[in-house]
Amino acid sequence: MAVATAAGLLLGGVRMLRGESPQPRQALNPAAWGSDHVGKPVPEYVTGDECLFCHRADVGPAWTKNRHQRTVREAETDSAPLAALKNELSLQPFAGEVKLLLGGKRQVRYLKPAKGYGKLELLSVAWTPGTPTQASKLLSLDQPHWDPQKFNDACAGCHATGVDSKNRTFSSLSLDCYVCHGDASLAHSKDPSLMLLAKQRRDPARMVISVCAQCHARTGHSGSTGLPFSNNFVAGDNLFRDFQVDWSPARIAALNPADRHVLENVRAVVLGGKEDVTCLTCHDVHKQSSLKHHRVAPGEICLNCHDSTGSKKVRKSYEVHSATCGY
């Protein structure tokens, strides 16, 4: 084995001296490890309220403002998106029905509970926040109506918890602890290493990336349902046993910089077997901070958002659009 390894290294060195390209590493099979919950019932998971009983001091104070927890939230009566509806005479009847808001920086959608359990109706009208160069505005004002299917078919998988792909229902709004930490064993209160993504353990990069990619790999779809989100993924599963993504360089290069850097990192892990950088290397989810990425060694992936020289504090100006999310 050692002789073969040395011979391989020597051959690679000779090729480099000759100016030849090194032999490409064969891509891994993303679906070759782990298990899944495709088509199975949603587990009876520990809810976030139960988690915060113990984590009320460390996670609790900031959790109500966390973007993961606020992806679907109550529509405050004085909020700018709701005020915009109320100021439009033809939309005032709809404004009185709005109970929830979806989205944030780039676009906000209006929601109300549907008649069936675990379902929401989505208003066809959207609102975009203002920018330094453009005022906020309402979109799709022609023929406003409540859509009883859109949220359940396209949005719920990344904006709700305990989603049942078969019945198009969910168990709770926004993202609960279960979405990232999985079906927790109660024994983890005595042994934190039993909890997925706990500080006391080092989970494989492919497992970590599956957790984040279930929502942030926005160009994929479920192979079993065709929906733009996975079929009953449970953190700890292999997402890519069911979730299908176009990994081709041409497809990824055509994406906006934000989505491109996500898929490049995911591809490096699930196809290339890299273990050194995952989403959590740069992002602290509970603190809503990405300051850690300033400490990561520069690499090609950095060029999506930063120049090749200069401080990482300087970021290129770019727009983010998503066909999956409709903006």
Task: Summarize the model shown.
By secondary structure, the chain is an alpha+beta fold. The protein is 27% helix and 11% strand.
Helix and strand arrangement:
Blueprint: H1 2-17, H2 48-54, H3 60-63, E1 72-74, H4 80-87, H5 92-95, E2 100-103, E3 108-113, E4 120-128, E5 137-139, E6 146-147, H6 150-159, E7 160-161, E8 172-173, H7 177-181, H8 205-216, E9 221-222, E10 243-244, H9 249-253, H10 257-270, H11 279-282
Structure description:
The chain has eleven helices and ten strands. It is an alpha+beta fold and 327 residues long. Strands 1, 2, 3, 4, 5 and 6 form a six-stranded antiparallel β-sheet that branches. Strands 7-8 form a two-stranded antiparallel ribbon. Strand 4 and strand 5 form a beta hairpin. Helix 8 packs antiparallel against helix 10 (257-270). The longest helix is centred in the N-terminal third of the chain and has 16 residues, at 2-17. Residues 1-24 have low confidence and may be disordered.
Question: Descriptors for this entry?
Answer:
327 residues, globular, disordered N terminus
Tell me the overall shape.
Answer: globular
What is the tally of helical segments? 11
Could you give the distance between the termini?
Answer: 53 Å
The percent range for strand residues is: 5-15%
Number of strands: 10
Rg, Å, rounded:
22 Å
What fraction, in percent, of the residue positions are helical?
25-40%
Give average pLDDT, whole number.
90
Largest sheet: 6 strands, antiparallel
Low-confidence stretches: 1-24
Question: Secondary-structure element sequence?
Answer: HHHEHHEEEEEHEEHHEEHHH
User: Given the helix and strand composition, which structural class is it?
Assistant: alpha+beta
